[in-house]
Design goal:
Layout lengths: L3 E9 L6 E5 L10 E2 L2 E3 L6 H13 L2 E14 L4 E13 L9 E5 L14 H8 L3 E4 L2 H4 L1 H13 L4 E4 L6 H16 L4 E5 L2 H7 L3 E4 L1 H6 L8 E6 L2 H10 L3 E5 L14 H9 L6 E4 L7 H6 L4 E4 L1 H4 L3
Parallel strand pairs: 1-6, 8-9, 8-15, 9-10, 10-11, 11-12, 12-13, 13-14, 14-15
Antiparallel strand pairs: 1-4, 2-3, 2-7, 5-6
Helix pairs in contact: 4-5, 5-6
Length: about 325
């Protein structure tokens, strides 16, 4: 059996939002391929400590803080690696590369260098997932009002919308989802439709957002660009990972008006539940913009919200 190698990798962000990739040197496996900086976790060392050490040794930068993100495994010809990815947003110093053939700052939306190491390819898609998901509730506030608030949110930077309208008639939902897609396209935003892959495809949406009940019975991932899932337990999160979803939403982190009697997870339990998963997880439940830093410190990719997305107060 191939021994598993623990590796810590960092997504290093610059102030303009670009992230750093390094090209592997000629005398290494996969020479010429591009990767996220990092290296092996030494015995007795934690992954975050390993990353801080590696980035100092490889790049000469001093990392102030790292945020846990996702963990992926990959079986190479020479090793079985488990990659612990962290986001590095707070660092200082001037880059002095000591191990790579080249370095490149890339845009999340469209990295230009390649090829990528096979284990790192899925990370590029995960980085494209917006940090905030707005969830519609037109049944509660009216279609006209929802579209008005959508326009304002899109103009303000919202780039991911989940159409979720339980109780809306199918014919009305079809027209509503198509209108959401049209308005989102004008801003380069993505749309997923809750619970209905066929309707998502019909309306030109980018993907589908599955319920936990759907997760339990689906045998294969729907054939759409983006597939997400609502989860409430570790078992559901692991099932979502097995199905190969692009993201999960976990809640409720805080008490909500939508589920007033439901016990909240809190941030400590949230962080515990998502630890070590291979896909990004959005935090859900009673959250507002001011909660973003706390969410990401707990390992969340970002936040999904209904009222917090449309509240203009």
């Amino acid at each position: 059996m191939t021994k598993r190698v623990e590796v810590a990798a960092g997504v290093i962000f610059r102030r303009d939002g670009r992230f750093l990739l390094g090209q592997r040197a000629p005398d290494t496996f996969y020479a010429g391929y591009w990767e996220f900086p990092g290296g092996k976790v030494e015995p007795g060392e934690s992954p975050p400590d390993a990353l801080v050490r590696e980035l100092d040794e490889e790049l000469g930068i001093r990392v102030q803080a790292v945020r846990p993100w996702i963990t992926r495994e990959h079986l190479y010809e020479h090793a079985h690696v488990r990659l612990h990815f962290f986001e590095v947003a707070d660092w200082e110093g001037e880059l002095h590369d000591h191990v790579h053939s080249a370095l490149s700052w890339e845009r999340v939306e469209a990295p230009e260098v390649g090829p990528m190491l096979p284990a790192n390819g899925p990370i590029l898609k995960a980085l494209r997932l917006p940090r905030w998901m707005g969830i519609t509730h037109a049944v509660d506030i009216g279609v006209a009002r929802q579209l008005e608030l959508l326009d304002a949110a899109l103009a303000g930077g919202l780039r991911l919308i989940q159409v979720r309208e339980p109780g809306m008639a199918v014919s009305e939902l079809r027209a509503f989802a198509a209108e959401i897609v049209t308005r989102a396209r004008a801003f380069g935003a993505s749309v997923v439709v809750n619970g209905n892959a066929a309707l998502a495809a019909e309306t030109g949406a980018d993907g589908v957002h599955l319920s936990a009940a759907q997760l339990a019975v689906l045998g294969a991932r729907p054939a759409l660009e983006w597939v997400g899932a609502s989860c409430h337990t570790r078992a559901e999160l692991e099932r979502a990972a097995d199905l190969g979803v692009d993201y999960a939403v976990l809640g409720s982190v805080q008490p909500t008006a939508t589920h007033p009697g439901q016990a909240a997870l809190g941030w400590e339990r949230f962080a515990e539940l998502i630890r070590g998963l291979p896909m990004p997880v959005l935090a859900l439940g009673g959250l507002v913009r001011a909660d973003m830093a706390r969410a990401r410190a707990a390992g969340a990719h970002g936040i999904a919200a209904i009222r917090g997305s449309w509240d203009q107060s």
